[in-house]
Design brief:
Elements lengths: L9 H14 L3 H28 L2 H8 L17
């Protein structure tokens, strides 16, 4: 494991300490989990962006045109506005 030394705004640190106390975990563990979650979200965003570059509206519409034009299964309806 690597030890990092970093600066964190006081307000964020206070929130992290309070949350760590509520969750009964060390603040270092909480920050490590938060960093891992943020990295995962950024990675997912990058993967989606890469896949979107390979996308084709024409191919999407071609596949969509093969779908049946039937009402949704009960429970799958869109909510009324």
């Amino acid at each position: 494991m690597t030890t990092m030394r970093t600066e964190v705004p006081d307000a964020i640190y206070k929130q992290a300490v309070a949350m760590a106390e509520r969750e009964k975990v060390p603040v270092e563990r909480l920050l490590s989990l938060a960093l891992a979650q943020a990295m995962g979200a950024w990675q997912t965003e990058s993967i989606i962006a890469e896949r979107a570059k390979r996308g084709s509206r024409e191919k999407f519409l071609a596949v969509l045109s093969k779908a049946s034009d039937v009402p949704p299964v009960p429970g799958d309806e869109l909510p009324a506005l």
